[in-house]
Specification:
alpha+beta; 6-stranded antiparallel sheet; 57% strand; elongated; PEP-CTERM sorting domain-containing protein; signal
Length: 279
């Protein structure tokens, strides 16, 4: 009965956040259709289920921030952001969800908004035990402009999952995405997982270039790792979303895609170092 109630709460929280996102986006797009308009949207969801061990302690963090500037007459920009982190003590499930949306119209404006969510749990694993869980995750990015000569929009997001033994990273999951409109030089969607994570679904859809761009990734999978000694395990799952619009457009550094590759390369290098030190 408790598990059913928890799943209902998680599902209700998830549906509520998605509903808010849809309403905000629809309202923004519908307003003042005769004016040039820009839209940037970034959403992330992560759900943990069927944890093999109940957490000893849990903590959550959720935050949003942003700014807007508009020069009259005719400039208008609006931001919206929500974040949710849910990890009740002594339960086998957790949920984090967040979105950032920025919408501008007219001339001479800029806006940026960020959202962040994190859940953390600690677990006591005995020698010979196996720690496991299922997870589902998604990242959705969208940008839209009408005049590539005068408007710009950027949507970015990342999702991470870390499993640590004290300060040592044992396993990780990482998704990075970015859209910068107009153009496709700084558009990317990348993911990286460690060996003990098994994916049952990894669906990606992208449309780079032009005045409307999107990137979506949906990942489902499971984690399983056995321990040959008592271990104090820490699970950290976090995500960050950002959205920005501007008229005139703000230039985006050419190194964005290269930076994403460097991050993934650093993760792979860290894994190799940790493996060699543990032997």
């Amino acid at each position: 009965m408790e598990k059913i109630k928890l799943e209902q709460k998680l599902g209700s929280a998830h549906r509520s956040l998605l509903s808010i996102t849809s309403i905000v986006a629809s309202t923004a797009i519908a307003s003042s259709p005769v004016l040039a308009a820009t839209l940037a949207n970034s959403e992330a969801q992560f759900q943990l289920n069927n944890l093999s061990h109940k957490p000893q302690t849990t903590s959550t963090f959720a935050d949003t921030n942003g700014f807007t500037t508009a020069a009259p007459p005719g400039g208008d920009v609006r931001n919206s952001a929500r974040s949710l982190a849910f990890f009740p003590p002594q339960t086998p499930s957790a949920l984090s969800s967040s979105f950032s949306l920025s919408f501008g119209e007219g001339r001479n404006y800029s806006g940026e908004v960020q959202s962040e969510a994190q859940v953390l749990g600690t677990f006591a694993i005995e020698a010979g035990e196996t720690f496991s869980f299922d997870f589902a995750s998604s990242l959705d990015l969208e940008t839209s402009i009408q005049d590539p000569q005068t408007e710009g929009a950027t949507a970015a997001g990342d999702i991470s999952l870390l499993l640590l033994d004290n300060a040592t990273v044992l396993d990780d999951f990482l998704v990075l995405g970015n859209l910068s409109t107009p153009g496709d030089t700084n558009d990317f969607l990348l993911s990286d997982i460690s060996d003990n994570i098994t994916l049952t679904d990894n669906s990606q859809t992208t449309s780079f270039g032009g005045n409307e761009e999107f990137a979506t990734i949906s990942v489902r999978g499971s984690f399983e790792r056995s321990f040959n000694r008592p271990t104090n395990l820490t699970l950290i799952q976090g995500q960050m979303n950002s959205a920005s619009v501007a008229d005139p457009p703000v230039s985006v550094p050419e190194a964005s895609f290269g930076l994403a590759l460097l991050v993934l390369s650093a993760v792979s290098t860290l894994r190799r170092i940790l493996r060699s030190n543990s032997k």
